[in-house]
Amino acid sequence: MPPATKRALVSDQVFERLSAQILAGHYAPGEKLPTQRALAADMGVNMASVREAVKRLEQLNLVEVRHGDAMRVSDWRTDGGLDVAAHLLFAAGGVDRSMMAALLEARRLMLTEAARLAAGRRTSDQAAGLDALASRIADTPDAAAAQLLDLAFMTELVEASGNVVFVLILNTVRRIYLENAERLAAVAAPDLAPLYARAAEAVRDGAAERAAGAVSKLAGEQEQRLMASLP
Questions:
Q1: CB within 8 A of 6, min separation 6: which ones?
Q2: d(CA 14, CA 97)
Q3: How many CB atoms are located within 10 Å of the residue 199 CB?
Q4: Rounded to whole angstroms, how far apart are CA atoms 54 and 51?
Q5: Would 4 be classed as within a structural domain?
Q6: How distant is the alpha carbon of residue 206 from its chain centre?
Q7: Local structure of residue 26 (DSSP, 8 states)
Q8: Highest mean pLDDT range out of 96-100, 145-149, 205-209?
């Protein structure tokens, strides 16, 4: 018999185990999962914990539950959303390097385009906000503080782009960022301050291509540092 799952946050542990198995391909798209009763018995938990975990799997479109039918695994590549990224990124307690590389590449491309748009759409308050944040990064005493300021800077930049889809994507990225701050510490450092200042200046001046180039260089440097910091 398998050891019983700890009672604290039981549904979370059931969810993490099932989502990891699905994302790792232990169950193929369309394949039936064991019944909730069988899962509860196998994991040594109660039915309520399994039901709660299954609801979360449904919300991520990892499983489909139909009344009177078995739970079937969905194809996360066609049905999943950006929220699946965090579970792929930190599978089995480690960091998936290929997923991290893909996420950072997407971040760089989105921020580059956001900067190009922001140069033409930003308000005077947003331009001033970017300047102020860039100055604070230059004066910050440590990498942890720079990390939070980096998030604030990129949030201001995306808001200034005026693209609501970019804003929604950043909301998901922000959750991943904050929940795993220690693992992502290399993404920001005080010595990158000149690159933030260059980007803020270009946005303020309405220089779209210069803004895009500055942010692409900044995000690219962050990408290299973070990838190099991974085990």
A1: 13
A2: 25
A3: 29
A4: 5
A5: no
A6: 29
A7: S
A8: 205-209
